[in-house]
Design brief:
With 254 residues, this protein is α/β, with parallel strands linked by helices. It has helices spanning 14-25, 68-77, 101-104, 106-116, 133-137, 142-150, 152-158, 223-228; strands at residues 2-6, 29-35, 54-58, 61-64, 87-94, 121-127, 166-173, 181-183, 190-191, 195-201, 204-210, 215-216, 232-238.
Length: 254
């Protein structure tokens, strides 16, 4: 298959490098367009009024000055390639993208852009045991890369490029192996606890982001619980915001 890889951690991130090597081992043609530096939490940001710079990092690998969704647009909408991709894979991300995270995630934004452009897409993420330097330094991506490579056709089949379009979101912990795989129809709700601190810096009013703990609310059926128990959590996520339910009893005046 022709596979386009991207991420929001940057082209030099370990997760995307491990995934590329594993997919190439299976004989796939792997191409990478990824941000030149970390672009976490940029959601679906697309560059419209500035130019992006592409630098060929190595054969079939390009670093982009823009954002994850820009990388997908370049791969699918430009004339950089004279062929079509079979699938776009975003990741493997450092850190989970579960539940509420999906709104903010550049990893998921890239996967969303791909299905909007008619190509099946998969977002892959691995959560560290703890958010401390030692755990992040020793992140384990190999088991997730193996899962993606061994189940690529199944994951692609779960995506949908017709309306209502869907991308596949996959999460696991940083582990050498997993107990199994569970399909999650419920996504966690994060209680981030973030706040913004106002600071006067020599007459300039600044805002400083103070992160919280991103603790998921308790729910044994959701993706966060599944990952915590040692399983891989697989979910399907709508690319377009969709509220199918009607609200009875509402009458509007014109």
């Amino acid at each position: 298959m022709n596979i386009l890889l991207t991420n929001d951690d940057g082209i030099q991130a370990k997760g995307i490098q491990v995934l590329a090597a594993r997919l190439e081992k299976d004989g796939h043609s792997v191409y990478m367009i990824a941000p030149s530096s970390n672009r976490s939490a940029v959601s679906h940001h697309i560059t419209m009024y500035n130019t992006n710079i592409l630098n060929e990092d190595s054969k079939n690998r390009w670093a982009c000055s823009g954002y994850p969704s820009d990388c997908v647009c370049i791969g699918l909408k430009s004339d950089l390639f004279d062929f079509k991709f079979d699938v776009v894979i975003s990741g493997i991300n450092e850190g989970a993208n579960m539940g509420t995270d999906i709104i903010y995630s550049g990893t998921c934004g890239a996967a969303r852009q791909a299905v909007l452009d008619g190509v099946p897409a998969i977002a892959l993420s691995v959560d560290p045991e703890e958010w401390i330097p030692e755990c992040r330094k020793n992140m384990k991506y190999e088991a997730m890369a193996d899962f993606a490579a061994n189940n690529l056709e199944q994951l692609m089949a779960m995506a949908r490029t017709e309306v209502p379009r869907l991308f596949v979101n996959v999460n696991g912990a940083s582990r050498d192996s997993y107990l199994g795989v569970k399909y999650c129809q419920k996504l966690c709700v994060r209680d981030y606890g973030d706040r913004l601190k106002i600071v006067d810096n020599k007459g300039v009013t600044e805002t400083h982001f103070v992160p919280g703990g991103a603790v998921p609310r308790a729910d044994e059926a959701c993706d966060a619980y599944v990952v915590k128990q040692g399983y891989i959590a697989v979910s399907r996520v709508y690319a377009e915001p969709l509220a199918a339910e009607t609200v009875d009893g509402i009458q509007f005046k014109v």
